[in-house]
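Hey, resending since the last one bounced:
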Amino acid sequence: MRFVTDEASKKEYKKFLEGHERCNFQQSLEWAEIKKPNWTPEVILAEDEQNNIIGSLCILIRKIPIFGNLMYASRGPVCDVHDIAVVKQLTDGAKELAKKYNAIGLRIEPDVESDDQTFRDIVENLGYKIKDDAKDFKDQIQPRYVFRLDVKDKTEEEVMAGFHQKWRYNIRLATKKGIIIKEGSREDLKDFHKIMEETGKRDDFITRPLAYFEKMYDNLVPGGHMKLLMAYYEDKPISGVIPIMYGNKTWYLYGASSNKHRNLMPNYLLQWEMIKMSIAKHDSIYDFRGVSGVVDENHPQYGLYRFKKGFGAKFTEFIGEIYIPFKPIKYQLYKISEKLFKILRKIKRKV
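The structure tokens again:
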């Protein structure tokens, strides 16, 4: 086991990550740059006897006022998650970092499905606890429920054949009604962000500042890991999406839609453009990202569930959060304060 410490090991890690079937952009050094300076990244590498990388875990460390440092890893580890020796190497590395940063706890939200009993047994054997009761977006940092579309070795025609008939109709309708999709520049992020704020007010969610999207653009676009796609009607931007491309996957990370011209179905056409990009890139998976785990027509997020489901994707439930409380009392107090903060923020927004 070793850590990424210099340019040579960074290149070695990047090559390993991009070539692994469990690759995730949130485990990348580019994504870690976006999270600076609030979070400090550390990458642990597991090795075989010939010093080849066989596993990795990118951890972000943040100072939490009053409580101390918290360690967090999103969608890791990247390895054979059924090999206890590899997972143990990465866990031992995390424990070393915990001592270095005097951390109160480690939280990981793995890219592992909920019914993977072998992985559950391994992490519990290594001292992790499992929190798998999340249902809504607010219950975890990353969505526990997503829709994933299998595009491996498939043609556009084969993928579209799996869409609901109405979804295929809406894609054709958008084109027929004059919706034009264009790849946006950094300057176009201003239009995207303006529409995003409109979307946030309509759907009642907090939006990130323009500077955050510009930072994403600066760190991800040069390496070919991000695009901005905008939908135009009569030369005016009405919708936009940000796909992230890394390794064998493409993720639909952000979307924004104006209150005007929604009847022209620009969002269906934008999804199809991203899916076509994923097919052309020879991906294994196109990831629609999060939906609520409460599948109820009366739930406020049911419309999002229905929209993503119509593209023929698989409803995927992740294991949730696995964690090690290095300082159990402090960690528990932090969790209580985190829950109270979310409640107070919700009340404040309503007021």
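Residues 225 and 245 are 5 Å apart (CA to CA).

Sorry for the duplicate.
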